[in-house]
Model the fold of this input.
Amino acid sequence: MKLLTLRYAPLALCPFVPGLALADWAIEPSHTNVSFEVGHLGLTQTPGVFRKFESTIRFDDQDIEHSQITLSIDTASVDTYESTRDAALRGPDWFDAAKYPKITFASRSVKQVDATHFAIAGDLTVHGKTVPVTFDARLTNRIVNPFLKVPAVGFVATAHVDRTAFGMTQYLPVVSGDVTLKIQVELNKLP
Done:
């Protein structure tokens, strides 16, 4: 079993493509992110990102279903592109970043659905409360990077969570209870 510590969580999806050697691939940080969207007034989806995160992977290359993924997000790194809202989200009425500095995810199981889809079930902890969540992960493409002239792969993983399960009930129903979490990653094979 290999233990890998990663600065960017989406690299956690790399183990789910048979034949890829983790040590031989590098994350493209300018095309990798952890983001979310939440409905506002039933009219729009307000976007946001977390600027700082890291992950640890226990990847069993002989039996992928024994792989494990952990993700740790710096709660204070939330950015919704509006500074007043960001300050409120960091405060005690929402994430309470001073009291709960990390949002974490720890996988319980990894299941291959088909050649390009995977279900990653685990426990998401936000605001001191832990709730089971399943990410639907998809291999988006395999290409030869036209700039680096090396193989490249992309992944997207999404999950829907009910923010009220974490005690975050402010402004319902103006701000939706359903939040979409999304992880996107681009990897390039090292020469």
Remarks:
- Helices lie at 83-90.
